[in-house]
Fold each of these.
Amino acid sequence: FIKSKMNNCNVVLLILESFGQEMIGYYNKGYEKSLTPFLDSLLKESITFNGLANGRRSIEALPSVLCGLPSLMSTDYPSSKYAINRLDGFGKTLKDKGYTTAFFHGGNNGTMSFDITSKSSGFDNYYGRNEYNNDKDFDGTWGIYDNEFLQFTAKELNKLKKPFAATIFTLSSHHPYSLPCNYTDTTTNSPFEKTVRYVDFALKNFFEAISEYEWFENTLFVITADHVNPEHKFDDYKNILGTYNIPIAFYAPKYIDSKKVNEIAQHIDIGISIISALNINESAFSFGRNLFDSIQKPTFISYNNNLYLFSDGKYLLQSDGKNIQKIYDITSDKSLKNNIYHNNPQDYEKLDNKFKSRLQQYNNRMISNNLYYIK
């Protein structure tokens, strides 16, 4: 997929609030008129995967995306007793290689421990509502409206010493779905859908701004979402797997060929794949796989309501941690209506062992504070 080496390229990781595949025209043709025309155009020039979030909430997303750590506990990692564990995110790996690292989120400083989690993941410089320092653009609930904050982000990125690695987490597509008074939307879309359209508008303006900077062409942009959208219209997304479907894409036309890859990919694959794409020859810890090689096979793992989900891209396993509850063939049964486990239980022992080995590694490493690569 990578047509030329990306040594010393910058990285901008975009995490879009509540942007499930269902909201994005590139992934979902259900809307007569796409809510995301700009994002669609970007994804068409990217390598994209059938993305899956490893959690259901924003606070679960950062450890997964930044550190390759899925959310497999009843308590999210930042709120758990293990939050003091050492985590070496891809930000630390890049920082050790001379990168300037920064995290941008227009929300109230301290919200959902984003500042602490990003710092422990290797992102030194934090920019939030306090750093923006102009509450005329405050949305009244969460923080600074995305269009204004992304313009601020563009200017701050340009000040960073190169090469840099930055994560940007948007916020406007979140309940109560507030829109700035200087932005009008006369469509009949739902309030949430209107904020999706607004964020797409903000992304367009952001990319127009940064395209003027000399570092733009030598930057890898990675696009994903924290979790799926809060409301569903289409049947393909009204099942236990569809409620995890998010975008995962890598955009760098100078270096990466555009291609729509139908393989599943997950949050925890992102960090290790960025390190690989940048041609950094360094060992790093992750529960995910490098999307740019063929050594490891696609997988997905998550936990919700006392049940684990595990998939190899063909089958989806549902387990209580000890016993398989259900098996679905996700290639032929898109709506996941037919539990095929009891047909031939012995056929799924290998899949079950793959799941349990990952869960065992997760539990053992979490308890022993061994969530990093030991040289």
Amino acid sequence: STLWLCSLLFGSVGFIVWCTARWRMNPFLVLFLTALLLGLISGMPLDKIVDTLKDGFGETMKKIGLVIILGTVLGVLLERSGATLRMANFILGLVGEKRAPAALSITGFLVGLPIFCDSGFIILNGLKQSLVRRTTFGMPLMTLCLATSLYGVHCLVPPHPGIAAAGATLGADLGMVMLLGIAISIPLTALGYFWALRFGPKAADDSVPREEENPVDPGPLPSSWRSFFPVLLPIFLIGLKSVALLEVAPEAEKSAGLKILSLMGDPVIALLCAIGLAVVLLSTRENHKSIQKWFGEGVEKAGPILAIIAGGGTFGAMLKAADLSGALAESISSWQLGLFFPFLLALVLKTAQGSSTVAVITAATIVAPALSSLGLDNEWERVLAVLSLGAGSMVVSHANDAYFWVISTFSNVRSDVMFKLYTPVTALMGVAAQLMIWGLSLMF
């Protein structure tokens, strides 16, 4: 029954929150055990439970494992060479220390336009760490500024795959979706910024070291262009691929030029190129012998992060295998809610299985046949329906979302702080986006 499925969903999420926040248990262990218990309670065959756990772990590593490792290595290289410190000094010189959170929010918004939120957070994490050490702003505040600015554009702006696929499924004009998505994301970024200023300073910051335990003196700092270029290169390559392939005919994708562009724009290859460039630009006589050591440090640092993120993958896979999200979506399919139906459907799917991309794509396939009955069958209404799907896919980011754990583990912000600060603002951003979309439907 729907009541039983809802009880399983909220009970399992509550168990994760209780274990990680109250008892400070290792998140990977909690997520893995919760997935196992969920499979047993739902009556799933034992052999399928084991296969689902393995598949969830493997699929998560397939999607994000190499990105995590390469992004962490790049971050260590930039940090140990002094590049992040140089970038922090450059940004602070432009905006001043009093406006460092605003600078980070703007940077996250711009970076998030072409690349995934988790990749963007990994790339900019070293810069955020340097700004925290350089200024008086705490880690929770700065983390919220960066995380929310990346999150809004990820869910609303093509060429991100979820919203782009939804636009194609519903037959909406992707150009209009992109323009309106950017316009709506701007106030959402401001919302995340002001939320961070209001609640970030009150968050517990005792688990976050304000200085490195074993600081390394990089010697003379590299120039600003040498410091920024390894960060901008993967952003440029990934963004160029996304824009170039946005509306390319299938036969054109087979051309040699687009194949090369597609390869270079893959996040893994783009990050690998950035690492190579960082070694060339940031290597000096003083640190040349240390670079190999920094590579090893980056790989070791990625290990615990990979475990936690993979644990979230097992939990999400078990929710999907138990058909929890599908049953909940079916229970509301007969409601006549106009633009609020795609919003609520994506909301349910996002909350149940964690991935915004999966939520919006799945919801789009359900909404597409019902557009006429919902009164959303002209071109303008289709665009708004796609954006409503994107708004719903923001609500909410919690323990089964890989991005949640990327933010928590890379920033060393405790999970209970994340549940108190980050999860509520994702709900607020999604609702605010939907209200703006609904307002547009009334105006035009």
Amino acid sequence: MKFGCTDIKITLEKLAVMCGGELFGENGNTEVFGVSTDSRSDCAGECFFAIKGENFDGHDFIGKAKENGAVCAVVSKVPDCGIPYILVNDTIKALGSLAKAYKSYFPVITVAVTGSVGKTTTKQYIYSILSEKYKTHKTDGNFNSEIGLPLTILSLEKGDRMLVLEMGMSGFGEISAMSKIAEPDIAVITCIGNSHIEQLGSRENICRAKLEIADGMKDGSIIILNGDEPMLDDVLEDRKLCRIYFGTENKKCDYLAKNLRASDDGTYFDLSSRVGGEMRELHITSAGRHNVRNALAAITVGTLLGLEEKEIKSGLRNFSPVKLRQDIIDCGRFTLIEDCYNASPESMSAALDVLADTAKGGKIAVLGDMRELGEYSSALHRAVGKKAAEIGVGRLVTIGSLAKEIAVGAEEDGMPRGNITEITDYGDAQAAANIIKPLICDGDTVLIKASRALSLERISKLIRE
């Protein structure tokens, strides 16, 4: 990956300083034009970072990176092939140090987003709104980790004014490390849910991990919090940060969405703000209260950064959803809600609300496993089944071994057993589609949702066909 700005001349000597390491075996004046973490890519003129993961060690592929044009390697042990190298204690931390030093060349305002659910959609809304006034750079795809975030920063270009970064995590310390690299001027926490509860043990610990987003923030910076989430009440009181709350329910919020109205083309709502007054007839093309909250967080960022109402409304209109996230597709005789990117108890509940709000005819829910819930898995899957029964799902299809508990919860809440179909093998997409297709009647709305590991978009595609 080439550096986003070619005006910054980075030599090996300079790169070593930026990485916090020591250069061996080469003239320090040799120029570097980018970085790579994948030895299979075109590494011409780039520095290869030998990163050690759970299932691989980048040091084993330094030779391949050299063959593909790498001029140097950043390593934590001396390589066994003849290539100039920068020796560091930790190559992931070195990548972060490089990104932090590179970012210092750009006069950008940095907005960081995290949360158990909605962080990607919120990031997209923030990008869409800020782009109405400023040249804005953002995290793409799933580059929201200790490796992906530095790569996003290293692709900053000349003229960028705003930087919008997404921060994900699976355990303590990860968001803290990213925050210290990015040093956010504004941070957003969308919600506290049950994602990664298997690793962290409780929602309280999940909240602690999300609050690490403040670790790299300077005094006087702004943190924007979901005011409908009780766990975020009065947090970070010991920090000199400006705390601003948004929400749809808590009347004490600084930015409050009200008068929510569902329509065929999305959702309309009004905004009452203690800071910027009122806005009326705000419109998003997505359904569901949770998407209003995501948009509201972005509106809050936009107003704080000087955007006018007409620019905010234009940014909402120009919003582009991420593929596989609650994409509503007209399939002719039925409607499909494809939401296959990932799943948690909170996002499952929100997706079922969208199904309830948008369905004109019968409601079919095809729901798969939710991963990383640990000892809470059974109870949380059953709660999803209960929700499906409560909103009037007429036909429930569960996919995967964990999702059997969704069926149990639905039946316990009164759904007839005959209306429930269980598919254990999600690997055979065609077989699953052959079971689901005959269940769909004219005018039905079909929701498909599960954790990313199940790749239910394969089944979705076959159903559409």
